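the two lines:
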Amino acid sequence: MVLRIDATGLHYTPLNRQVRAAVRDGETEIVIDNVLGQRFIADGLCGEVRITVNGVPGGDLGMFMRGPTVIVNGNADHAPGNTMDGGTIIIHGSAGDAVAHSMRGGRVFVRDDIGYRGGIHMKEYEEKRPCLVVGGSARSYLGEYMAGGIVLLLRLGDTGPFVERGIASGIHGGEVYIRGEVDPGCLAIGAKVLPLDEERRARIRPLIEEFCRYFGEDPAPLIAADYTRIGPASARPFAGKYVWE
Amino acid sequence: MAVGSVPLRYRITIDRDRCMECGRCVENCPYGTFRWEGDRIVVDSRNCTACHRCIAMCPRDAISLAEYPCDYRSHPLWTRDAREAIYNQARSGKIILAGMGNVQPLPPIFDSLLLDACQVTNPSIDPLREPMELRTYIGKKPSKLEFSRTPDGDVDLRTELTPNLMLETPIMIGHMSYGAISLNAQLALAKGAHGAGTFLGTGEGGMHPAIFPYQDNMIVQVASGRFGVDVDYLNRGAAIEIKIGQGAKPGIGGHLPGEKVCADVSCTRMIPMGSDAISPAPHHDIYSIEDLAQLVRSLKEATEWKKPVFVKIAAVHNVAAIAAGIARSSADAVVVDGFRGGTGAAPKVFRDHVGIPIEAAISAVDQKLRNQGVRNEISVVASGGIRNAADVTKAIALGADAVYIGTAALVAMGCRVCGNCYRGLCPWGIATQRPDLVARLDPEKEGEHVANLIHAWTMEVSELMGAAGINAIESLRGNRDRLRGYLLDEGMLKVLDVKPVGA
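prediction for all of em together
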């Protein structure tokens, strides 16, 4: 049984209350129709539930979320997956700035483009290894301050070198994979191009396949493509900056 | 090396007539000031930090410590500190890190503010026989209350009240993270806060399971690094605090070096062992006051609007306008941290030169919020250099609802303010993760000391209020007529909105 919620004219708090109440009642499939900018959908929501969002959700979609799968049929505003703990967000469109900010676990898939600061400060701990997969392109400061996890940028339809600046500034853990060449001048302080061996290719392959499953793409050319792998130059980017009093 | 070595800072002397060579000084000093040479203890004063552990542990009072007289040519501008900092940076080429609070010899404004006392016409109140109300609620208050009558004649409150924290005293303990301080130290603070009926902050290091029994007394912090932040952590706290800035280092982030991220710290911060824990200066999802409002509301949504949300900022030049913005962001309290706030580690140049005094900041914030008619919409917490009950009382009279104490609570547990917290070797078991040093701090005993301190100050605040003819803390809040400025210039009196002595 699918529970349908009509979000027309609904403020985010009553909308989220309805979603929470439904999850508490054991609902496993929820469809929210007519979403128009409501923020914080599934914020702090825990449990095994599949939520389909029809429309454009506002900021902080799935923030602090643990467990649910959220499918957005539309674009998303900024910071979907903010400090998310677990679960999956699939966006059939583009998303704004700070996508997957400080994400701690789970996966975010964006079919098209994302804004600035994607994957910023993503981190990992034990079995929690978050990933952000973007089908299109990203703006500057991708993977900035990254402390763990994987950012994968597929750049579908783009064949030139990636030229957005400030890639991975202050990165001290995790990896950024960008399909194709990356202008070396775009790498920020602390970031370094690392070799892409077979083990690393094997690591991103399931993410490519999963992306293609969601969005109906052919995985073969993406699996065979060349990627630039970017990681931290050091796990201690600031180790040499300070002296004691 | 061109600059050579600098003179020692402290001189340790052992009175050989009193010393019985028991070796406790050798065991107790983690900095290596004492060592055995054969059956005799010898001293290397250069290693001394003036932590006083050796003096406290010597059973024969045989150890004495003195600041070593400076043998530089005396100069009012080129002080010993100024010269030695240059030697250090000429050698290293690096930013100097320092611990604890501002060491500039600037006079505390608190000491130039004098409290009032009643005499004949409006007699003072004796707290021994009159009830004194020090209970403090932190959170939003409604601007008016609406009631309705039930058919059977009862009165119902129609106004929906937002969740508040209830404190038995206007004194809370500020945020000191597990990582910056030891688990035993945080546990002692938690026990102390629990015993005194008040709250303490987790800092930005997450919450260790050992603290769970005290979670109802904890304010959980969300800093830019989002360390240890998940929905369980948010729900455990009695309140949530967004840390934007800190008085000891306004405008910069936090950084716990990888070597301090041991297994337990890694678990509470939820990052791999040995990884640097970097909290950058800005929150990456806050680039405007509207973004801050969004984070406040996202935290409220995640916890179903059951928790008050605080926003902590450093006291800076435009603090009142910033606080006015925060008041409109759905936040329940604004914490203003003055430039004397302590820290485990901060660049010395920030610690000593950035920010403004809490006295001026709190007064400016209170006035601005009152002028804009939004003071009731938010509580104000003052922190950064609160040293005694008089400072607490003056901060409240200048407009704070409550204060956070930090260094004072550490001093209650033995801290000697030696300022070497960043070295991780704290001989009192406070700012260290070394198991043998951590074990020196007994959480039960030190928790009692912390609770005692808060009880004592609370009684003193109540006596000071009684002397001023005030029997409820609410009547003291922002009551500047109970203050007079002594030896303060006109500009400062205007900022504080306080009359000079005699007026």
